[in-house]
């Protein structure tokens, strides 16, 4: 009878211990690593947890983008396949940066030292044919950084913003140069007609 009580107690203890060992959350990372944990909080970007072997220990944080699935002790699970959501967010941020950079370039880039004045002057003084050379050279060169007149140095550190701002400034520069070339050529033509007719 004593052995039966001991055996019953041992079986009950094993059942409780087994139940407790499985009564935990399991985080499976995208790397394949499993982390036995107690999930404390799930935010929009992170999962905060404590390691199951040390529930009184420190709080750990992992990015949701690094997690494949979380299996909770109650049997429910969350699958974090945020690639689509993250891609949409990146695309939105990229579109926002692109739009802001274009608007800022149109507003702040003045085309200083673009070569537009010299191109127009060359067309008037020499001829439109000879002025094509400086027009082509000046319009093919991107604006120098010191002439960009960017409103925000921090935004220029963002690759998408920087590339778009410079590209838009280059378009503006080309427009100014070819407009100046056109005006200079028209002035040359008028002067030519007045002088020789």
Polypeptide structure, described:
The protein is of the alpha+beta class and 197 residues long. It is 55% helix and 16% strand. The protein contains 5 helices and 6 strands, in the order H-E-E-E-E-E-E-H-H-H-H. The protein has helices spanning 2-22, 83-108, 116-125, 128-140, 159-196; strands spanning 25-29, 34-42, 46-51, 60-63, 67-71, 77-79. Strands 4-3-2-1-5-6 form a 6-stranded antiparallel sheet, with no helix packed on it. A hairpin with a 5-residue loop joins strand 5 and strand 6. Helix 3 runs antiparallel to helix 4 (128-140), helix 3 packs parallel to helix 5 and helix 4 (128-140) runs antiparallel to helix 5 (159-196). The relative contact order is 0.10.
Quick summary of this structure?
This protein has 197 residues and is α+β, with helices and mostly antiparallel strands.
Q: How is the topology of this model organized?
A:
Layout: H1 2-22, E1 25-29, E2 34-42, E3 46-51, E4 60-63, E5 67-71, E6 77-79, H2 83-108, H3 116-125, H4 128-140, H5 159-196
Antiparallel strand pairs: 1-2, 1-5, 2-3, 3-4, 5-6
Helix pairs in contact: 2-5, 3-4, 3-5, 4-5
Helical content (DSSP H or I, runs of 4+): 40-55%
Which strand order do you get reading across the main beta sheet? 4-3-2-1-5-6
Q: How many whole angstroms does the radius of gyration measure?
A: 34 Å
| Mean pLDDT score | 83
Unreliable spans are: 16-22
The biggest sheet amounts to: 6 strands, antiparallel
